[in-house]
């Protein structure tokens, strides 16, 4: 089984017809065994459906999508889950658990009849949305956090590898030495187009002028990584206002729906006195990160 996600900088790109990249996940026994990012070659709605069919895609997870594209995907036998937002990897995990709903488009065996305890897909953020846009949180990267080149006033990334497909091994650690991620442990290098906004800015900038075989150590401040945490992305609501939330536990990650019906990931940070608090910030927001990066190949 293969799942494709419209992809931008680690998150779900919101316009199917304009997506430049898809992240494709190979699934076996309900688990992701490999993934890769592929280019769309700038094709339009119908051609994109053909591209996905040619890749053997069974399911597409995306944000917004038009009726023509929906029909093209249906004709190609590709199941569609639209209206999704947030981290691409988390959305795929939610889909595999039966916790990702499709907003406005049929996704028959996912998201029907579940309560907030599963994903919150049938509930709206409601009144707590005042003061912030729920749908815009949890997407992983802000301009200040480094969306690659061309984001706000951030200087363009330059270097010999910009625009080229790079394969790297890396190990990521916090300042106390705790490892949070490692491609070495997975046994599979990370592949991305340098400078295309597929990676956090600091990682992109580090790889931009490396030579194949070179290993570098970089220390990234939050503005070069996932940005600072947004206090407006933390909100508290009455448990009674969100049926199913009484079963949630602190530390659990779930999906809620914005007023427009788009699911977005949140983490339960507190639960007391009949209220529950959610944090829609990226889990790495506000953190300094360290990477050891080894450039394996450039093409």
UniProtKB/TrEMBL annotation:
A Gene Ontology biological process in which this protein takes part is: protein refolding
Query: Which keywords, in A-to-Z order, does the entry hold?
Result: Chaperone, Cytoplasm, Isomerase, Rotamase
EC number in record: 5.2.1.8
Which InterPro entries does this one have?
Di-Nase_FeMo-co_biosynth (IPR003731), DiNase_FeMo-co_biosyn_sf (IPR036105), MTH1175_dom (IPR033913), PPIase_dom_sf (IPR046357), PPIase_FKBP_dom (IPR001179)
According to its UniProt record, where is this protein mainly located?
A: cytoplasm
Principal EC category? isomerase
- One Pfam family linked to the record: FKBP_C
What name does UniProt use for this protein? Peptidyl-prolyl cis-trans isomerase
Native source organism of the sequence:
Candidatus Limivivens merdigallinarum
């Amino acid at each position: 089984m293969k799942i494709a996600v419209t992809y931008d900088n680690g998150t779900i790109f919101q316009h199917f017809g304009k997506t430049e990249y898809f992240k494709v996940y190979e699934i076996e026994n309900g688990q992701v065994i490999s993934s890769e990012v592929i280019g769309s070659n700038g094709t339009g709605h119908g051609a994109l459906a053909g591209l996905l069919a040619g890749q053997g895609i069974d399911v597409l997870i995306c944000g917004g999508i038009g009726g023509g594209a929906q029909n093209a995907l249906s004709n190609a036998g590709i199941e569609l889950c639209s209206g999704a937002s947030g981290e691409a990897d988390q959305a795929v995990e939610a889909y595999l658990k039966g916790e990702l709903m499709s907003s406005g488009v049929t996704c028959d065996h996912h998201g029907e009849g579940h309560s907030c305890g599963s994903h919150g897909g049938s509930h709206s953020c409601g009144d707590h949305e005042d003061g912030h846009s729920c749908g815009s949180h949890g997407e992983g990267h802000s301009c200040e956090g480094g969306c690659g080149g061309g984001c706000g006033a951030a200087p363009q990334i330059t270097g010999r590898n910009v625009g080229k497909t790079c394969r790297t091994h890396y190990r990521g650690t916090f300042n106390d030495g705790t490892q949070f991620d490692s491609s070495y442990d997975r046994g599979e290098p990370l592949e991305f187009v340098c400078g295309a906004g597929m990676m956090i800015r600091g990682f992109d900038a580090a790889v931009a002028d490396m030579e194949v075989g070179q290993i570098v150590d970089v220390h990234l401040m939050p503005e070069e990584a996932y940005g600072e945490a947004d206090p407006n992305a933390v909100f508290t609501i009455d448990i009674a206002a969100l049926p199913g939330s009484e079963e949630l536990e602190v530390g659990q990650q779930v999906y809620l729906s914005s007023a427009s019906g788009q699911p977005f990931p949140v983490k339960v940070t507190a639960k007391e006195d009949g209220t529950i608090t959610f944090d829609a910030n990226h889990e790495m927001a506000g953190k300094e990160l360290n990477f050891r990066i080894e450039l394996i190949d450039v093409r």
